Amino acid sequence: MASATPRLLSSLFTPLRLTYPIHAIRTSHRSRTLSFLSFNLRRPNGRLRTVSSFASNGTNGMERMGQKDEERYDVIVVGGGHAGCEAALASARLGARTLLLTLNLDRIAWQPCNPAVGGPAKSQLVHEVDALGGEIGKMADRCYLQKRVLNLSKGPAVRALRAQTDKREYAMEMKKVVESNSNLFIREAMVTEVLIGKNDNIQGVRTFFGMDFFAPSVVLTTGTFMSGKIWVGRASMPAGRAGESASLGLTENLQSLGFETDRLKTGTPARVDCRSIDFSGLEPQYGDDEVSWFSFDPECHIEREQMCCYLTRTTSETHKLISDNLNETPTYGGWVDAKGPRYCPSIEDKIVRFRDKESHQIFLEPEGRTVPELYVQGFSTGLPERLQLALLRTLPGLENCVMLRPAYAVEYDFLPAYQCSRSLMTKKIEGLFFSGQINGTTGYEEAAAQGIISGINAARHSERKPLIVLERESSYIGTLIDDLVTKDLREPYRMLTSRSEHRLLLRADNADSRLTPLGREIGLIDDRRWELYQSKQLRIKEEKERLKNVRVSGGEFAAEVTTVSGQPVRDHTTLESILKKPHVQYKLLDKHGFGNENLSRCEKDCVEIDIKYAGFIMRQQSHLQQIVNQEHKRLPEDLDYYSMTTLSHESREKLSKVRPQTIGQASRIGGVSPADITALLIWVESNRRKANQRTQQELLRSGATDNHMAASSPTDSVVQATAI
Amino acid sequence: MALALIRLLPWRQPKPHHLFPFSLNPTKTHFLFHLRHCQASTSSPKTLILTQDERSNGSLSAEREAIVGSGTIAAIVTSLGGGPAAVGIVRLSGPTAVAVAGQVFRPVKRVKEEGGCVAWRPKSHFVEYGYVLDNDGNVIDEVLAVPMLAPRSYTREDVVELQCHGNDVCLHRVLRACLEAGATLAEPGEFTLRAFLNGRLDLSQAENIARLISAKSAAAADSALAGIQGGFSSLVKSLRIQCIELLTELEARLDFEDELPPLCFPSLIDKIRVMQHDLQDALDTANYDKLLQSGLQIAIIGRPNVGKSSLLNAWSKSERAIVTEIAGTTRDVVEANVSIHGIPATLLDTAGIRETDDIAEKIGVKRSEAAALAADVIIMAISAVDGWSEEDAKLIEHIVTSQKSANQAMTAPMILVINKDDCKPKDLLISFEEICSGLFKKVVRTCALTGAGISELEKAVLEVRGLEPISSAGRKWTVNQRQFEQLLRTQEAFVRLHTSIEEQLPMDFWTIDLREAALALGQISGDDISEEVLTSIFSKFCIGK
Fold first, then answer.
1. Which of A220, B158, B336, B479 has the fewest other C-beta atoms within 10 Å?
2. Is the ipTM of this complex over 0.85?
3. Phi first, then psi: what are they for B477, rounded to 5°?
4. What percent of chain A has pLDDT over 90?
């Protein structure tokens, strides 16, 4: 254990003690010249992707690798979806030689369901991943078709950016990014086995065609592919997604290693040809005039033309058609038991469960600038294909629509995430990490959030650095992972604002000030980003200072403040206290020339939020502080819960299963009562003291051996005396 | 510029403020130092990170010191119900123990100096004499405060012990005042638990504590279970359900904005108002219960030799007070317990109030005044023989002014008792009632010697306190300390919610206090509110892709 003490920063500021050369920070893909230079230096053959070519052309540490070691990496990421890409990029950017294995190279970062990124709670995840140095935010900013800020007037913590994205462009852009990292190697392969070493540690993976790839860290991001099976009506076939084969064999392999697997189900609605839609009668939904951004990196802030979404509704014909054919749906026909997630019920579910609702909203969302597909949001169904078109045609505007892809459901294997610790490393196999839908989540954002954490930790594990765990209270990412590994999930987990108890502190606007310093420390934030970040914080700080000191009296400004807020403005009031008044926004300061032109819109927002809600934020912070003091006590990992007779039987069982890392995590496990927590605290404290005593005794003994060689262990009696 | 805060949490934490090493120094050396420091202090290979919002660092560092540690707990630590003891102790322990004590305790010295607005800064292990005041500024008891600051205390946290008069009434009131000031009621054995967890007790005691706590928590569970059938819990349940419903309405809009119809705010605010009203009712009941459980304090005051002690003896059917012909016989406060239609009451016989040079009597007079200030009902006794005299008028004026100067928002109702009714000269009667109707809520004639008029007096006492005899079927429920605390926290949350609405804060802010209210109301069962709200959202609204 001693050798594994943290060396968190050493790699940042002292160059490399690894077996191969790395550039500690290579996050920027925009500084083309620089990265290209290093690219060429290290790889004369340019884009050649085979490992052998790399190895033979490699310099420095590469010679150490013999021919038979050519398939050796630091980190292997299995799966090229949103979790896999984020994991592979984080790992490669931290300097780990990373192999990304995917079933289909042309489907990297594919968006098989809604062509959108963000939304409530999910947008916070995206901002946080970006603040740590991840990719998803930049991608969404680069490939958006439309952007809207939701919940604008409902409070700073729930304001949420959502982008409709061009799914082809998104996949292509992400492919470019993963291809242009010199530490990252991509290969098409179907992994069927994980290779395990003597100490229950991961050694690598074996593919269907018999290749072995070795690495001390492996991240599995299998998505819906592990034994995936898709359904349209009563017909089903093995597939991870429509048109893509499932990954077979890995489940059985994991089961044989003692992992528990289970099955989840999700679905996606039909796609229709936009050229066959009559938009004239439909309500258009435009994007925001003033575009907001996911990424804190201004280099991604390039505005583009926005596309329009449309709103239509179900009609009485829709409802009739469904009611008449209920026995044709999996749930009501009775051939599928599994219920879909509660937050995305099928249209038949909605109609059956909410009978008195005459109509349901249906959104038509474009899937790209160059493709005709429209995503029919709110209309997923388990009906057979022959009924689907008729059903679509009951919607106003879709009377003559052409269906391009039918709606389908997909069933897949996942591994209940209590088998992972909060670092996302599995508890059974050292060096094996799970991320994304394999952990029972749904959504690109949730996948990316886990991906970056597992990527960071996989890289750190390969370097024997301590793993990182984001506490629940630190971020939505932390909340997500804590929920995953602690709670008993019965449906795909989607991030929602109501899951975060401390959301007022975990806002989009402060994701960078919460997490970018950590990203820097880990090594994912390069100098440019770091300087941007620091100067931004400085500007905000100075502006807050300025508002505290500038005072105004009377005039038009005061008059308008009074009208807007309904509160009088006293003479010599500071701008700060004016900004605290209800409905007064920074914009009003700008309007009357009291604003600061050097600040960006988003920085002004930060200033406004910090000042306006200071009281609430402070209260939440002190609240959180209490929780931290109570709950962040760590639990030893090797506790034998079954031997703790003061615990209830149920909680002994649950605690042994989840093996919480902290008292707080233990208290969130269903079935563990406050009394159990107290008992646990006492048990741990007594054990700690016993251990202390033992070490003291040993010290005593080692000191005393010279003097008391012959005496019949006088120290033992001391132990007894103090223990009574 | 303080860099990311990596919180490494070894099991034993040396001193809380080390855990948040805010470095204002932006240099990398500091940064490196910090990490090296972390290395040294961890024994486990994992790094748990609680990132802090760098933007709010500067403004918070001051508060941070004050909020370290888990909550502050309070309880009566001397035995209760075992007959009157001379002294009883309310103990506070936790990081805000001093602050809480400072809110309820007024040292006598400083009241004179500056009116008692400055935070109390006690010297550890230095006894101070003063008063305990309730929320409204009423004097509850005179006490000795014994501050024992961390780590030199039983729990190794800041501890303040308030040594009160040893009757249950005083103790419960002082405890309540502490709860109102922000302390939470200690769980059974919690002081000892803290002492143990903070390394104070011997290891061998651990098992006993564990046993104690599991036994008590079983008992608590039983009693909680018993409480479930009661009217109180159905109120709590319904309030909680309403909170969850409101949360559902609000949070559904946050997560699924474009799929739901907009909220109807006026009706929402109406609902909140109704809930607040229900809550106030419950708290009123709790206050009524407070009287039922802790009893009424009835101070008998008056000039010397009007028969106060005789009255006490007659009322309590005892010879508690010494009765002589000599004015000024009673020099200390004499207590006697009676039951008025089922409600326990403590009668306090006081020294006759008059100008005097006798030192002992002077002190007695002072105490009489203090007793009057703390009482729920004041009985002013006069003698029918003397009628309403100058001195009586002076005395009552004195009491009224001292009530005002003690900042009492709610003064105790006063009853005029005309004692020695058997010896009255007939002509004076009418003028009493005329003179005194403003000051006194009731006038009762008694004869302490025969006991005549006592039952009228009892009725009058209940009437002026607005208490009906307990036998009537309308009684709803009783509220214990813990339930009272629950209601109190809920009400606090609602008051804040109300402010948020009034200040027109966005609706996400409403959820914060609604959540707290729901938590406070659900504490017995410890449910997971988020999951409950989600379930409610999904069952209530039609949402999905």
1. B336
2. no
3. -160, 175
4. 64
